[in-house]
């Protein structure tokens, strides 16, 4: 999410939290209840705003919203695409979506309110490209889901294992340096 919107949400959370004690000041019993709830809601929004956003780690994608925290492992991701979805009730957004083995995970923190319904905004296309590059980097290094197969150990019998162990133990006594 853009830093400017993060600060706007933080300001709104602080304002709502500040109104809570004012509502409870010298008020009836329900003023205390609603003032406490406003303070709690505003403080929660202000606190959650600091973690808001999408972060790419070596293990996967961490997606933090105001109401959720989701982690998707790289090995579960098959690809990325821009997807049209609804944000809140009325607003249509175009947002990057991770195509998983079982379903789709929409990264709503990277959404952009879209007026044009048929084109992908530049910023969303840039996010999708960055996510695809990160997925390719992961697949290049991951032996579980990448193109590099795991090295298979050759099976040896008891005599073969004993012979290789003796070679490794006795083979280091030649002209090699002892400082390794």
From TrEMBL:
Transmembrane segments: 7-23, 29-47
Keywords: Membrane, Transmembrane, Transmembrane helix
Domain of life: Bacteria
This protein's name: PH domain-containing protein
């Amino acid at each position: 999410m853009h830093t400017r919107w993060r600060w706007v949400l933080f300001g709104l959370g602080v304002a709502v939290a500040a109104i809570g004690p004012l509502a409870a000041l010298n008020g009836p019993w329900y003023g205390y209840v609603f003032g406490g709830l406003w303070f709690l809601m505003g403080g929660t929004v202000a606190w959650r705003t600091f973690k808001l956003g999408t972060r790419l780690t070596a293990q996967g994608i961490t997606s933090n919203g105001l109401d959720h925290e989701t982690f998707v492992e790289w090995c579960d991701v098959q690809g990325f695409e821009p997807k049209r979805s609804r944000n809140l009730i009325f607003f249509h957004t175009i947002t990057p979506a991770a195509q998983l083995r079982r379903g789709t995970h929409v990264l709503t923190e990277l959404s952009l309110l879209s007026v044009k319904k048929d084109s992908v905004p530049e910023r969303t296309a840039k996010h999708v490209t960055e996510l695809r590059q990160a997925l390719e980097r992961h697949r290049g290094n991951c032996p579980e889901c990448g193109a590099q197969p795991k090295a298979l150990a050759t099976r040896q019998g008891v005599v073969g294992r004993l012979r290789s162990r003796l070679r490794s133990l006795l083979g280091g006594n030649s002209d090699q340096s002892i400082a390794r």
